[in-house]
Amino acid sequence: MLTYELKKKPGMPLYEALYRCIREDILAGVLTPGEKLPSKRALAQNLEVSKITVETAYSQLLSEGYIRSSQRQGYFVEALERPAPAPTVFRLPREEKSSCRLDLTGGGVGQFPFSVWTKLQREVILDYGESLLEPLPNRGVPELRRAIAQHLAQFRGMQVDPENILIGAGTDFLYNLLIQLLGRELTYAVEEPSYPKIRQIYRSSGAATISAPMDGRGVLPEVLDKADILHLSPSHHFPTGLITPMSRRQELLERCRGFIIEDDYDSEFRFNAHPMSAMQTMHPGKVIYMNTFSKTLAPSIRISYMVLPDKLMEAFQRKLGFYSCTVPSFEQYTLARFLTGGVFEKHINRMRKFYRAQRNALLTALGECAFAEKITILEQDAGLHFLVQADTALSDRELTQLCARAGLRIQALGDFYHDSREDRHTLIVNYSGLGREDFAAALEALEEEVKNASL
Fold this sequence. Notes:
Largest sheet: 8 strands, mixed
CATH superfamily of the largest domain: Type I PLP-dependent aspartate aminotransferase-like (Major domain)
Number of strands: 16
CATH architecture of the largest domain: 3-Layer(aba) Sandwich
Radius of gyration: 29 Å
Order of helices and strands: HHHEEHEHHEHEHEEEHEEEHHHEEHEEEH
Shape: globular
Distance between the termini: 77 Å
Strand content: 5-15%
Helix content: 25-40%
Number of domains: 3
Structural class: alpha/beta
């Protein structure tokens, strides 16, 4: 007779506890194939539970194929194929995992407002209920589009029709939509240097790309003689940190024969001045504005949006209106409430303060280190990164390797150039994931490495 100690646990009825006990004995081989199980009445009496409890447990085991039923004879253990051993999961050796004291390549999360976010989620569930399961408008829920339009008006000085806002799960998805909308036969100019991923997305979609060279004022207008579409980040370029001045923006708009895709990267995090107006305000009919909440909230919150000119939104609905919105309504309604009522503004202000403290601590430490006279800090007043230019004969590869030996994971500016691989002796310090408690030890180790390498 089967004997188990069944105790009622929160969230687990007795029949499920019994089902799990029998299933584990079957999988472990304690109950062998073909073995007859006690009758429902007998097992219920032995375990001092109701017959319904045993009947429900047997029914679950039967439906999942762990047992079989034979009329007038009872229940028998089914013969099962033993699962193959779980594949070995590759794990880095402990020494290698701990070798990186500090990751300065970005992707960290500052201070996500969990309490506020979860409170808003509960409100959304209570207020919307089962309607959260209904199909969504392909552009996104109206509440979020209106909230984004209001935010853009207050923060970026943009007057945007919510009907022209399109919401998607990450900018990668939106880039692909744009290529389908604008056409693969066009030529897309991408800033040089820039994120390699942007160029990869265009090319993987079958679009031709060319590099858009830059000087100290941004993209050179001459590139538009060869390109139909220009992709740029005028408010805070990555990785150089450049801000394109008004005069250069006007030149680019006048020279562009197609559309400009304005990626408003990092525009929220400017410390010593208000963000410069978006290019979209200068020519709404020619500029496609894009932004994401992955930087301001968390990398895993894949909610991005773009503002299309009137004629492009009409074309989108006509050509690609069959696409469904890729962001769940639950997340959209939560974000809409986060944006309204000043909650998002307070969060941004708090994050600016947090990141300013991160940056200042890092700059102070670098200014006091043993090799301070050998480095120059560039573009440190905006965004979540700055550049460190080293007076050294070491190559970019040797510089990053030197940092790696000290436990610092870091990228070189030269790695973001597509057409040129020359050494620029400049490193990109992204402090969004900085753990200040680890920085002192990492910098001390770096000082030792620099001393040995004769930087």
